[in-house]
């Protein structure tokens, strides 16, 4: 019985994956091309994105939902970031903070201001905030998606929060 | 605070998704044959029954196997330890008795009637097998506490030695083992002891009339071969 259930589940995943591919293949290519301006590299990135989606197919409930679309976009941006990091001779240091901002700052501002501040963050911080606060993924799940350690995820979440608070406080306008 | 970030993340996400081109606009984008073929292979691979197994179940099986191997290692280690302990206990109970000093023991379960038949005069026995490169270096007779004879073989290059001592079995015999490992082995049908500590190996071989103590910096296999060849 368990075997039958697992087969059924597998078949369901295959059709889900096919639907996912047909629904988002062009969107993934669009994002990759937009960022990298090279068809061959964009296609490699897109293939990598779908390999990752195939491995994480159980995290996707409804192929048509905005949540899935957002997840696909984040995976795509993550793969683009990964490609850029691999092809750079050095990786720039992440920003340090002179001032540690307090969460109380968020009480004084409107939600839309916070949303604007998120849009001004760099891609890596935007993605981590969306994965954490929109999708509700755990640190371990984010680590698996981005292929990084849980410790790095924790640091990135904390940095993203600090960057966000810095933007809200008006202390940084450089993005 | 977290709630406000969550709400902001929803707003940001919706804005971002709305900024992306619509499906109709994306239709203009053409994908290469190469890419479509590659993706078709990925989809076909997904339909293979073993693919999800490799990606999900196999990882779980591998984890279970890893835990199993670890458990097996622990059990093996415990078994080895227990076995070693059992051998010690066996010899303590049957023919080994710890001295009051703690780390020595004596053989004492030999059949007294059989022992009485053993001649008082020691008739020296010689091993028929000695590993290559070893030659007799020294031999002497002794009678401190018990009659015995000792033969020392030395290797021509490494200067390693093999020492064979033959005792008259009827006398109590003690040996110091300290923390060495003791294992029960059979040599020419006689229960014997293989005692190892670091690179030093010692065999206590109680043959018919005599007890042999063979030791050296050679492998237990070689020592056993020497013991088996004593005539």
Unreliable stretches of chain B (pLDDT < 50, length at least 5) are 87-105
| Radius of gyration of chain B, in angstroms, nearest whole number | 36 Å
Helix count of chain A, per DSSP?
7
* Broad shape of chain A: globular
Percent strand of chain A: under 5%
Descriptive overview:
The complex is a heterodimer of chains A (175) and B (231). With 175 residues, chain A is mostly helical. Helix content of chain A is 70%, strand content 0%. Chain A is built from seven helices and no strands. Chain A is globular and about 45 Å long. Chain B is an alpha+beta fold. Chain B contains six helices and ten strands; from the N terminus they run H-H-H-H-E-E-H-E-E-E-E-E-E-E-E-H. In chain B, the strands form two sheets. Chain B has a seven-stranded antiparallel sheet with strand order 3-4-5-10-9-8-7. Chain B is rod-shaped and about 110 Å long. Classes of the chains: A mainly alpha (175), B alpha+beta (231). Chains A and B meet through helix 1, helix 2, helix 3, helix 4 and helix 5 of A and helix 1, helix 3 and helix 4 of B.
